[in-house]
Amino acid sequence: MRAESNDDIKILVADDEESVRDVVRQTLEEEGYIVHEARDGNEAVQAIARYPYNVVLTDLKMPGIGGDQVLDEVRSISPDTAVIIITAHGSTGLAVNLMHRGAAWYIEKPFDICDLRVRVAKCVQEQRLRSENTMLRSELRHRYQTSKLIGNSPAMQQIHRMVALVADKTSTVLITGETGTGKELVARAIHYDGPRGNQPLVCVNCGGIPGNLLEDELFGHVRGAFTGAHQHRIGRFELANHGTLFLDEIGTMPLDLQVKLLRVLQDREFQKLGGTATIKVDVRIIAATNVDLTEKIRKGEFREDLYYRLNVIPIHVPPLRQRREDIEPLVLHFVRNFCIQQHLPQKQVSETAMKHLVAFDWPGNVRQVENAVEMAVALSGDRLLLDLADFPMVECASSGEPVPQSIDIPEDGSISTPSFPASSVSSSSAACKPRAATRNARHPCSVSSGRPLSRS
Fold this sequence. Notes:
Helix content: 40-55%
Structural class: alpha/beta
Strand order of the largest sheet: 2-1-3-4-5
Number of helices: 17
Number of strands: 16
Strand content: 5-15%
């Protein structure tokens, strides 16, 4: 693994002893850093005001402005700059206090050169990680903001308006809708469009974790809480502090755990498994479900008081069959994305294929559309036009044929790529099985796998 270059890292060394400055400068320049010097605190403050430094090493005791004032100046001008205090023996107590005020570390004179290298390298690495984290959060915020929700139907426009209204609030949101409609995307849009967008969004699939483990997952535990609990564990509520906790498939949560969740929603505090300390959190809750919670309440499977706590702001995401005008933009969006991901030239969808895609009911909703488009792009070879035969599930539904459960690849691996004009694609043309055979002839594959037609 190649080490990262340091030639873009700028460091300021402030000390009234020239010999100390020379040793530090030579040591750090050998590591590839750009090093500037300041003979006292006044020069250091002037340099900090003119130049953005990654790290500042400052002596604690200097004529005029001392290292404590240099630290304060750095914190006010450039909070991301790391400050390392250089102190003489006997001043370590003050140096430790300065760490509480924002200093990254301190080193004592006479200091070890290797220790200096390690401390500076650690500060630089932490700064790079913070920068990367900020960049990734920015990318996530851009990716999942409201404008990234695909669809122009009246239902989607209403969801856009609801997200815009509630994003900057702290109220609990309950998102309902069938599987695959995009409930998590709505939750992400709410989070990243609001003031918590730079804080964590922690997602928990309540249906994917056994009930006896879900409590530990949400609240964490202390060491010795149960057999095998050899160390403390931070739960999802703590991880989401100051951010958002998204509870998907909330309808599957066991009744005994629903009581504990209700308390957190009411008091914003909880105790870890086996713990006695009360932990307070500032977390916004967004929940989602694909079942009718009112029906589960009637059956005694979901607490009515928890339902009302969750359903403060309800948002319903309709299935695709009720908003068919969103299917075409979704198909085009997924085609474009998969072509980019797979480094393929941009493909188009024939008018005939699009007409049948829009007419199809898509029981798996957006997720099923995404899977179907991914398969079509991957198996269409070098052709730039996707036709109905590239969507066998839709084609079979259009012709009334049973849907095949796999794609058969010829054992000899022979490749034939006849040319078919787009106009020849028709829902009323040959039956589904011969069309599937033609499809196999068009797609070069070397393995007979029987890949499922859809992951939904």
